[in-house]
Amino acid sequence: MLHITDAELDRFILDDAPHGDLTTRSLGLSGTPTVMVFRAGGALVASSTEEAARILARLGCTVTLNAASGTQAAAGDVLLSATGPADAILTGWKVAQTLVEYASGIATSAAGMVAAARAVRPDVVIACTRKTFPGTKAVAIKAIIAGGATPHRLGLSDSILLFPEHRALLGQTTLAEAISRLKRACPEKKVVVEVTSQDEAEAAAAAGADVIQLEKFTPAQTAEVTERVGPCGILIAAAGGVTAANAADYAQAGAAILVSSAPYSAPPVDVKVTISPQ
Q1: Residue 34: left if φ>0, alpha if ψ -120 to 50, beta else—which one?
Q2: Chain centroid to CA 217: how far?
Q3: Which part of the chain is the Quinolinate phosphoribosyl transferase N-terminal domain (predicted)?
Q4: Does the pTM exceed 0.90?
Q5: Which of 253, 257, 262, 221 is nearest to 238 (CA)?
Q6: Domain limits of the chain?
Q7: Residue 43 and residue 67: Cα distance in Å, rounded?
Q8: CATH code that applies to domain 115-265
Q9: H/E stretch holding 108
């Protein structure tokens, strides 16, 4: 699983409690032995429970992790528990709970999309884009992986995606020349070409694209392209507006890859927390 650094976790803690917990300290409860339990409020796919455990451990708690990222949990299932002094428990409480709720919301959404698409086409890949909210990429990418999806691109540095915007800047350079240039410069990489029409898709296939990414095509339009281009051995990726509600339609249309940002905007799931004297 993707590693999230201690520095990031410390930033989460400092954001909420830069000078400790004023209420707990003022009540004189700081050293009171306390136990805290996280339970799933409903069916969910857990994510970032390891990071929640690490946050609590960094504050001085002893933690038991019951549900690793990727675990499918039912309502009432224990995700993790912690014991320690009240100031450590209460300082880590909301930071850890909120992290698990948001990350598990993304993971649960991704898992729903994967299940919907693979019910129609078992080998289809759900690939989530790099369009995460700034500063949350490590958590978000770990979450979609926990849900059974895969990263589409981790960033501009790791893969080649030739957009229409690139082609607009190439002057008289043909698409075939541009693809050839990319393959010479990066021979170990596949060249993905994004297109916005069926004619562009067929031109990209003829020009040597390895993957053709259909931007905002309907499932019917996707089926037309896969029928014409698919026999060439070129992978077809559907992108733009792909959600759990229509993932099966795109899979049925023949797209091998469904590219989506939808899981990143999923609402947080409910994680219920109980805190009591130890």
Answers
A1: beta
A2: 23
A3: 21-104
A4: yes
A5: 257
A6: 6-110+266-277, 115-265
A7: 13
A8: 3.20.20.70
A9: helix 86-118
